[in-house]
Design brief:
two-stranded parallel ribbon; mainly alpha; single chain
Amino acid sequence: MAILLLDTTVIVDADQRQETTPPASGRMQNRWRKKGHTLSLPDVTIAGVALTHGLMLLTDKRKDFPMPELALYSLW
């Protein structure tokens, strides 16, 4: 399984991220705050980068990424 995950891993250079990522992340954070969920800036930034690039996010903290539009792969 580890080989499969490593073979499909995409590394996004933070210096080459889309210009739309920061505003999209801020909007996402505000939208979830209005729903009563407090999301950290690092988490919404990670989610914003994954959404902007159409990537699946590998995480063991599913609760930190409640966005239904975000493709998640849970480790557990």
